[in-house]
Automatic annotation (TrEMBL):
This is Arsenic metallochaperone ArsD family protein. It comes from Lactococcus muris. The lineage of its organism: Bacteria, Bacillati, Bacillota, Bacilli, Lactobacillales. Gene3D superfamilies: Glutaredoxin. InterPro entries: Arsenical-R_ArsD.
Length: 111
């Protein structure tokens, strides 16, 4: 499974998303989940070359961030939270949290 996030700026996502991507970015390519993040500031050509991303940006005022799983748009205009990621991928992301975060939904910005 391939999870991609197309975002306006690389610092736009919360710590929870960063942790998920960090956890899976070091995995081997044959693992269950591959992740990629692209930001418009650094890679504008990637956004115009990808048909789904380009079309969403042309047709919607606020298309970014855009979450794509295996070539299918799953979320438009907002970052997925842990519950979204679990639902979208079928994997449990609830346990990937910053140890300093004690909340249960990881929307506090700490985890």
């Amino acid at each position: 499974m391939r999870l991609e996030i197309y975002e306006e700026k690389s610092d736009g996502a919360g710590a929870a998303i960063a942790q998920v991507f960090a956890a899976f970015s070091e995995e081997a390519e044959n693992e269950q989940l591959q992740t990629a993040r692209y930001n418009l500031e650094d890679e504008p050509d990637r956004f115009t070359r990808h048909p789904l991303v380009s079309q969403a940006m042309q047709n919607m005022e606020q298309a970014l961030p855009l979450t794509i799983v295996d070539g299918e748009i799953m979320l438009i205009g907002e970052y997925p939270d842990m519950e979204d990621l679990t639902e979208i991928t079928g994997m449990n992301f609830q346990d990937i949290r910053n140890k300093a975060c004690q909340c249960s939904n990881c929307k506090c910005g700490k985890g």
